[in-house]
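Appendix B. One record, verbatim.
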Amino acid sequence: MAATLTQERFTGPEWIFERKLDGIRLLAFKQGADVRLFSRNRLPQNLPRIAEAIRALPPHDAILDGEMMWDGATYHVFDIMWLDGRDVMLLPLDDRRALLSALPLRSPIQRVRALDEDEPWERARREGWEGVIAKRRDSLYEHRRSPHWLKMKCEASQELVVGGFTDPQGTRVGLGALLVGYYETQGPAKAGHYENGPPEAGRQPDEADFVFAGKIGTGFDTKLLLDLRARLDHLEIPASPFTKATGLPRLRAHWVRPAIVVQVAFIEWTVHGKLRHPRLLGVRFDKPAREVVREAP
């Protein structure tokens, strides 16, 4: 069972939260004294200490699910799929966790415990975790990427400048997505690579490049969509202001003078220098656009 990435942040009595571990998914199969360990893609794993600890467990047969961390080769178990001849995957998660809690696990096996913070993703950010996993208490164990398990990865935050937007589609109003970028601090502006026409007129040769960082289509409410569209219509220009850009939309795009700064949350920068899973946090009317820079990689 795999978790689905979400950008939402929520809690509720129907959910439990666990630390998202950054290791190797490990499935443990016990049949009497025979113990076999496999990665998620079913490759055998040779981990004698973990195998011995599983062999010592009281059940004759069991299948455990968890994550193996390289720091001390600890096996963090968070679920159980089979126990003494019984398929327990159709039990709710709470019941499976109760069965798991009854097992006398010993080092190097640890049970993954539920988090009790009001905002567990904030603890993840403070302590440098990869994120948290939200699981429905009534969820069954499914052999798929399930919406009943959600992963909330820790987010980075960056100020970016709006250089364009796309038209709304379907029932959406105002705009579809913001096209955002930053000023590169490495050296003076070069001829650059850009699409959809030359950069904004009036750009000085000693100015930094305005680099396209991606598009943002989530994090808006209706009022903000309409307000931003009204502001952006007053800033519209005939050609793209981005002086370094790949992947700019070619259809239904509008270009604006870079003047509006937005705060954006995202998971990471891709290898191509784009935002991965960005969402809008807010608009920074107090921040001059020219101050939004990012050190060039």
